[in-house]
Amino acid sequence: MITSAIIPRPLARLPWRLIFLVAAIAGFGLLVLYSAAGGSIHPWAVKQAIIFTVFLGIAIAMSWISESTIKAITFPLYGATLVMLVGVEALGFVSKGAQRWLELGPIRLQPSEFMKPAIVLTLARFYELVPAGEIRKWRAIWPALLLLGIPAFLILVQPDLGTCIMVGLCGVTVMFLAGLPWWIFAGPAAAVAVAAPIAYNMLHGYQRKRIDVFLDPESDPLGAGYHISQSKIAIGSGGIWGKGFLQGSQSHLDYLPEGHTDFVFATMAEEWGLVGGVLLIIAFGLVIRWGMRVSNTARTRFSQLAAAGLSATIFFYVSINLMMVMGLAPVVGVPLPLVSFGGSAVMTVMLCLGLLMALERQQRTVTTIA
Amino acid sequence: MNQAKRFTSAHQSISFSRRMLLLGGAQVGVGALLIGRLGWLSIAQNAKYQLLSENNRVQLIPVPPRRGWIIDRNGKPIAINRSSFRVDIIPQQLIDGPRVVATLTDLLKLPPDEVDRINRELEHSRGFQPVSVADNISYEQYAAITVRLPELAGVAASRGFSRFYPAGSAVGQLVGYVGAASAAEYEKENKNPLLLIPGVKIGKEGLEQAMESTLRGQPGGQRVEVTARGKLVKELDPKPDRSGATVQLTIDADLHEYAARRIGDQSCSVVVIDVTNGDILAMPSMPSFNPNNFSDGISTNEWKMLSADDHLPLVDKALESLYPSGSTIKPSMAMALLNAGIDRSQRVNCTGAFQLGNHTFHCDKRHGPVDMDAAVVHSCDVYFYSMCLRVGAEKLSPMIRSMGFGEKFDLPFDNQRYGTVPDPDWMMRKYHRKWQGYDTVNMSIGQGMVLINPLQLAVMASRLATGKRVVPRLLKNKPIVPQTQLAVDEDHLNFIHKAMWGVVDHGTAASAKLPLDGIQMAGKTGTAQTHNLSASERGDYTSATWKLRDHSLFMAFVPFDKPRYAAAAIVEHGGFGAAVAAPLIRDTITFLYDKPKAIAALHNFEQSIGGPLEERATRKTAMWRAANGLPPLPATQA
Question: B229 — contact with chain A (CB < 8 Å)?
Fold first, then answer.
């Protein structure tokens, strides 16, 4: 918070530390995109700058939304997103192909992206409505499972394994924080361990191959393991200080696939090295910590759960992507928010941050106790 | 932990804080894991990935090195490189195969044989490995193809070097030949990319193969930075190639070619050795293939013709063929007899036949009473039957071996055969039977189990000439093996020199006297039986088919009183040693001392058998093709 006589009060009240942090990450991302395009602001850096600016504006605007408004639109938002998911599925069925987005004029809407914050808010709202005494009852569990399960299933069959995992993890995090009994989490975890081999057999061929290759990338360095192999080469060859801005051979010579989207971290690490990578991870860590603090100091159960869930969304975004590019997780197609080129991830993260800012503003301005 | 029965909002708040702590801890843990992983990749594994990244970035377009020359002892080229134009098809890039092949056939006037080969190779090609269409094409043809390249997808016309052997088939067996690497050879060299470049030939046979590592050189390369899609970004400093090293032989190219031509149409190998240092001066094996034809890959028909030839053009007879030594063993036998204490003036009466048990061994004629000198000069078998029986095989074999029979020589050929010098122990090991008197009798005249190759015969001549252990040498850069004294008496040596001089002066090889003043040759003829023919058939060669005839052998050294050169020839099914092998050696030796005279003799000889070597070979091919119903070959450009 900046307190100064010169700056008007509404502006000074913005969480400037967070905004600077996010802008720094996005700015760094623009540098990486500039380099990934071979030292050109086209075709990615300029577009990304516009997308980021627009969504930052939206996020800041969102910070004035009151908690009660958020609560009020939570269920309708969830319902609308669900309808869109079904719509996408129907469209894919008609056109006999995988479909993940709806075309609304010039805008491509990916409903599964909206589902990430929507599921967090919905579950937070749901558990706020559940009385404390009921939380350990079956009544508090099955509606949540249904609220989470239906969209997760719709996204899985799109098929979009990465987003499905993300939505699932976000929802489970909120349920965990809501205080559901331990066995709810321990039981399925054990079941997953048992069922994993069976599920493995039911996966799509390309997904199964991704897992096979993830377990042993060198088994197919020119085929399905190519992404991970080349990504590790890019990161590993960067060393501590990196090869220097615009000097990354892996990305510039196209050895690194998806070097401006999912594998943008590898492009960055090749040129900026371990130092750049650690700074970026710390920056994301600070953003997430800020969100977790909002949750910790929140005074309503809804804002507690929603703030933690939204922070977790950002956390899962970053960590799944980084694990993926560094060979610790299968390639599931999760971009690095704010850095990867593309509007969806920026939109989701900025929606989360906008909501977090709104919740944070409530803590400072509204003195009512829930 | 057992919770209170009623879960209040206070409980809920505690639970939330605890779980938030846990979640935060897990997030920090994941963050630490990510940083740790990043550190592991970029610090611990940095070197490995840096190398991989460089391997990605920099590609080497190999530039084949020029193959080293093979030159003779005087620097005269035996195998060199000629600049040439060639055309290849890269199967991967080929779009309309049949049309392209048809166009090329038309432009290059390819014979049907070649078209068959190209189609067959295209069918079995490995995609990336170019199929050679034609090598050594003329500039006009090269230009004609170059202008049409846009419509000939998959065709590559390039300049390169091709191997050229000025002496042609005269050196075929010596140098072997080169050819494009086969799939098996490519795999064997760990997929060396050099072998895939069109026009890169590797040694397939003979010295070309044995000296491959020396001759090949180091490929250079244009180092380029390329994108993952193979697009060239920029050229980096090239890595220079290093031409293959020259291999110098002890061969005298002129002498070698002379001997090869003098062999004529016989199936024969001649070896000439400088006895002072063991240098092999000539070692032709004829008939041979023309290695110039092989370097482009020969047609099936040509291969068929060579394989079917009973004169074995694909065998290096000097090292790979084994023959009974026949009477050429006798001077060494005489040395063994002298060492065993036989008095050389003692006579044996030759009645033309020798009875051992119930078997009669023959001599080629009735020599009457012969001493050792006469027995060598006139090649009396009965003398050696009886004397060798007296001494016993145990005392004979070691001397024969020390003279070079059965000995392995360190020469750069991997398919040499060494033959046998039998003895009682060997007989027991190999055939599990006791040595018998008739084995000694057979061995005494170089028949039975005695088997030698022509090189060993020449080595024997040089060791008899010097009394020292002359070791043959073919590569000029190999050290000369010091010549140790053999277990022979100076007096015995002088005696045998005299006797071998007698062979040429007034003995079995009297027809092979050198036409030179003051230089006299000492030698020994040999006639090795291959089939048991009757005496009458033996005299009349026309009645026996070629295959049944005796081998004709001759070994010699000159000058007889101060030996400098030793030579040997084995003519397969040539008949009497004196008749074919001795005159051949005579002319070859003459060439060493008086070239004009020898060349005149060769000219007359070639006139009598129907023209020079290549001319006869061309005629032979034409006849073979006609006999096998194949169209005649188009006239080739020079």
Answer: yes
pLDDT band at residue B2 using 50, 70 and 90 as cut-offs: very low
Rg (Cα) of chain B, in Å, rounded? 35
A239 and B46: CB-CB below 8 Å? yes
- In this complex, is the C-beta atom of B29 within 8 Å of any C-beta atom belonging to chain A? no
CB contact under 8 A, B23 and A326: no
Name the H helices within B403-485.
424-431, 437-444, 454-466
Do the Cβ atoms of B23 and A173 come within 8 Å? yes
pLDDT in tens, A121-134: 999 999 999 888 88
Closest alpha carbon to B259 in B634, B616, B599: B599
For the whole model, what pTM was predicted? 0.64
Do residue B41 and residue A235 have CB atoms under 8 angstroms apart?
Answer: yes
Determine, for residues A179 and B229 on separate chains, whether the beta-carbon distance falls below 8 Å.
no
CA atoms within 13 A on the CB side of A34: 12
Please determine, for residue A218, whether its predicted confidence score (pLDDT) is greater than 50: yes
Give the separation between CA A218 and CA A213, rounded to whole angstroms: 8
Among candidates B9, B23, B37 on the partner chain, residue whose Cβ is nearest the Cβ of A177: B23
Query: What is d(CA B451, CA B144) in angstroms, rounded to the nearest whole number?
Result: 57
In chain A, the largest separation of any two C-alpha atoms, in whole Å, equals 65
| Alpha carbons B442 and B311: distance in angstroms, whole number | 27
CB-CB: which of A237, A322, A323 is closest to B53? A237
CA dihedral (B110, B111, B113, B118) in degrees, to 10, reads 10
Interface pTM, i.e. ipTM: 0.91
SS3 label, residue B527: strand
List A residues 276-305 in contact with B (Cβ-Cβ < 8 A).
Answer: 277-278, 281, 285, 288, 292, 295-296, 301, 304
Task: Kindly give, in sequence order, each residue whose CB lies less than 8 Å from that of residue A224, ignoring residues fewer than 6 positions away.
Answer: A206, A209, A210, A212, A213
Fold observed for domain B253-616: Beta-lactamase (3.40.710)
Which CATH number does B60-248 carry? Answer: 3.90.1310.10
Q: Is the dihedral of CA B31, B34, B39, B42 positive or negative?
A: negative
Classify B304 as helix, strand or coil.
Answer: helix
C-alpha atoms less than 13 angstroms from C-alpha of B236 in its C-beta half-sphere: 12
A289-301 pLDDT, tens digit each: 999 999 999 989 9
* Cβ within 8 Å, pair A236-B31: no
Cβ contacts of residue A245 below 8 Å, gap of 6+? A31, A35, A271, A272
Which of A236, A277, A296 is closest, CB to CB, to B20? A296
